[in-house]
Amino acid sequence: MKKIIYSIICIIIILGIGLLFILDLNKGDKSKDDKKLEKIRVAEVAHTVFYAPQYAAISQGFFEEEGLDIELILASGADKVTASVLSGDVEIGFSGSEACIYVYNQGEKDYLKTFAQLTQKDGSFLVSRQKIDHFTLEDLKGKNVIGGRQGVRS
């Protein structure tokens, strides 16, 4: 379990450093004073460590250096992110691709399009109150597992 957690942390750090490096290379000799910032509203489904590179880039002003003023909005759910994009309240929405599929399958003419994949897996972690050496999924038999969403229990 520790190897998995360490691997995830390393990947996040590497992605963050890579993003900072790429943004630094693209800075060039642009001056903040000679350009107007374009406002981009972004709705995210949840605050998560998997978006850490984005949070770092926003807080360090890297988007502003590229002419973008990012307004990050927590929409708390793929349905709310989807509604925000469809209504024009935001330009970009972060959620699972299933939201795009649901809208498309309903026959909407103005459906959403997925243009990027930010994470490969669900951003959930399994934690315990007690230390369990050599954890396996068999250790969950007979236990209550509380899901990350309200009302989900297995």
Explain this structure.
With about 150 residues, the protein is of the alpha/beta class. It has a single domain, classed as D-Maltodextrin-Binding Protein, domain 2. The chain contains 5 helices and 3 strands; from the N terminus they run αβααβαβα. It has helices at about 1-25, 50-60, 60-65, 80-85, 100-105, and strands at about 40-45, 70-75, 90-95. A 3-stranded parallel beta sheet has the order 2-1-3. The longest helix has 24 residues, at about 1-25.
Largest sheet: 3 strands, parallel
Which percent band covers the strand fraction?
A: 5-15%
Return the domain count: 1
CATH class: Alpha Beta
Helical fraction: 25-40%
What are the defining features of this structure?
3 strands, 5 helices, flat, three-stranded parallel sheet, single chain, 154 residues, alpha/beta, D-Maltodextrin-Binding Protein, domain 2
